[in-house]
Predict the structure of Transcriptional regulator, MarR family.
Amino acid sequence: MKIDPQFCRVDDGLDTILGKWKIPIILYLLKNQTMRFSDLQKVLPEISKKMLSKNLKELEEDDLITRTVYPTVPPKVEYSLTEHGKELEDIIDSLHKWGLRHQ
Amino acid sequence: MKIDPQFCRVDDGLDTILGKWKIPIILYLLKNQTMRFSDLQKVLPEISKKMLSKNLKELEEDDLITRTVYPTVPPKVEYSLTEHGKELEDIIDSLHKWGLRHQ
DNA sequence: CAGTATCCACCCTGATACTG
DNA sequence: CAGTATCAGGGTGGATACTG
């Protein structure tokens, strides 16, 4: 036994990637390096602005992504993964393979 | 890039371990092999019967755990992980280590 | 463009009581 | 012991309109 359930609660960091949209967002950022708000809306057409905004804010607070604002008109905002966020790639990949192994 | 976000949606199997209680339940079953309903209630004192029941049912439907009923009086029900469920150990471990690395 | 504000419906969850 | 039934509440998410 590697980890004691007493010391692995959901808030250990797992909830930072919980939810319907966070993993897809992370995957798109892994693929594209940098994306604007509207880019994410295009590839995730079913998410509402509200939810996208909320998820990006939470991911930023959890230091998984970086938000860069260019003070132009119209405004331009770019999102990209932090190193900590990029470290999730192998784990998400394992999770994905695990999911596929069982139908 | 290993996985295409187009092909890694949350319902790929990730939602089978989503939620507040499923990972802790899996971890306890990894540790103890077999547990009764009341055993799980003891180690997870904050979960209600209703939620525990619901989570166990979903985990069973997703083939992560097995439910064994002994037709005795009083009834005895045991839960244990399937092979598919046990395969999650390394992934949860990685996730946990990843979470700990960052504060 | 990149959000926020507002309103509203719904679902998830908790508490309690009940059952086989 | 191992649940289910019922009711109530609070938070979550969607739709739309608005803003800098």
In short: The radius of gyration of chain A is 15 Å. Residues 48, 50-51, 54, 73-75 of chain A lie near DNA strand D (CB under 10 Å from a C1').
